[in-house]
Design goal:
The protein has 461 residues and is of the alpha/beta class. It contains 16 helices and 19 strands. The two termini are 33 Å apart.
């Protein structure tokens, strides 16, 4: 199903939303029959709890959904999406939510909850219930967010057999075509080896040729450059992952998928920016010409890198991509990548950790995370660890044997290539391990809505 709201002019039933302390008052307001029904069914107003209110003829007249306590709402975003999923088909109008932010979260959660990945088998239909966009909420903005998120989920959920570098390029070109953006693709042994040597070194072992892609959109406004890691599958290379470490590696292009989803949001909304999107697309596999431990690469930027782990390949391809991005001055530079397991250990799968040294960008991003219902957490570019990524034999080490702060040292490595005062790096997970309201198990975007909502303040739009 596509994310969309019901027509505002449609005949609609009312979904009354109530917190536990308001249940008694709501029952009284709805009438004695409704009050008796709610009491008889044990309705308490817990988050996502729903009761259908019958009419005299036995039809569904309206519904009541629990909003939960403030603590419950902090513990679970999009909780009302579960209630909406339990409603009969048709148009529904929210009532009882005073704050516009609460209405927006409920509406966005309901849109995100209809996602189904049906490429390989017929997807079960999502609930036929559709909300009418609540008063004071920008329907077009929320729909654009959901469509961008659906693109990201589809890309991550597609297995590597059908989402290699060429297929990711096709999706990239299709996205650009839908919005009139221009695309440049650099591929071919000689061009990559000379112009993007670390992208070439990581991807050369695969018969599915590596490439790096650039999209440009917009004629005026500040320049926003997005860089996304597009490792379409990661075996670890010669530092081979164990089998359980490969099970989710179709999602190792989650950074690319997320910046593409964000780009779709920006272009669909027509934000007054010049947008540049760069995605290096490779597979990290094993063959006779695979990258080897202790190889030393000379990057596009001229920095030399000692390869101490072929499974730390994401920062290599991003290094060349960030160097390319930095050759044109921009107003904001963002990289997104499923980069380190250390980030998952630090914050788990639900938070998107990020790095940034600009206080204004941080404030805008934190506010955007709240507005977009897209939680983020700042980690530090800790300068004291800079020496850890310097091996002595080369300028940089792609996998220092420090044993600590793996996400931070990876971020410091990337910062050497970004070399930009207004730089944000996201070390995302890109996967929901268990189903949650508005988020089916599987691929998920992280940080994109926080960035989208923070862009006006970040770029002075």
């Amino acid at each position: 199903m596509t994310p969309e709201f019901a027509d505002a002019s449609a005949e609609a039933r009312v979904l009354h939303v109530v917190s536990p302390e308001g249940v008694e008052g709501l029952g009284a307001a709805l009438g004695p029959e409704a009050a008796a029904w709610l009491a008889a069914t044990g309705f308490k107003g817990d988050m996502g709890e729903v009761r259908l209110l019958p009419g005299a003829d036995g039809s569904v007249l309206a519904a009541v959904a629990g909003f939960g306590t403030a603590k419950a709402r902090r513990r679970q975003r999009f909780g009302l999406a579960r209630a909406v999923a339990g409603l009969p088909a048709g148009a529904w109008r929210l009532a009882g939510l005073e704050a516009v932010a609460d209405r927006a979260e409920a509406a966005l959660g309901a849109l995100l909850a209809v996602y189904r990945f049906g490429r390989y088998r017929a997807a079960k239909d999502a609930a036929g219930a559709r909300l009418i966009c609540p008063e004071g909420v920008d329907a077009g903005r929320l729909v654009a967010m959901a469509r961008g998120e659906f693109l990201t989920r589809d890309l991550i959920n597609t297995p590597a057999q059908d989402m290699g570098p060429a297929e990711l390029e096709a999706e990239f070109v299709a996205l650009a075509g839908r919005h009139g953006a221009a695309v440049t693709v650099v591929r071919g042994e000689d061009l990559l080896e000379q112009g993007f040597p670390m992208v070439h070194a990581v991807g050369r072992a695969s018969p599915r040729a590596p490439r790096i892609m650039e999209m440009r959109w917009g004629a005026a406004g500040p320049l926003l450059t997005l860089v996304g890691k597009g490792v379409c599958f990661d075996t670890g290379g010669l530092n081979l992952k164990p089998s359980n470490g490969m099970n989710l590696m179709k999602k190792d292009m989650g950074g690319a998928a997320t910046v593409m989803g964000l780009a779709q949001m920006i272009m669909e909304l027509g934000l007054p920016v010049r947008l540049r999107v760069i995605v290096p697309a490779v597979e990290n596999v094993v063959s006779g010409n695979a990258l080897k431990p202790k190889d030393i690469l000379t990057s596009r930027k001229g920095l030399t890198v000692e390869v101490n782990d072929t499974d730390a390949e994401g920062r290599l391809v991003l290094g060349d991509a960030l160097a390319w991005a930095g050759e044109e001055p921009c107003d904001l530079l963002v990289s997104m990548a499923t980069l380190t397991g250390a980030a998952r250990v630090a914050v788990g799968p639900d938070l998107a950790p990020y790095y940034c040294d600009d206080a204004g960008i941080v404030a805008a991003l934190e506010a955007g995370a709240v507005a977009g219902c897209d939680p983020v957490w700042r980690l530090p570019f800790h300068d004291a660890y800079e020496s850890v990524i310097e091996p002595g034999i080369a300028d940089l080490d792609n996998a220092p044997g420090f044993g600590f702060a793996g996400s931070i040292t990876a971020a410091l490595f990337l910062r050497r290539f970004a070399d930009h005062p207004r730089y944000v790096h996201f070390d995302i997970y890109g996967h929901t391990p268990t189903e949650a309201p508005g988020r089916p198990k599987g691929g998920v975007g992280q940080g994109a809505r926080a960035l989208l909502c923070g862009l006006p303040a970040m770029l002075g739009l």
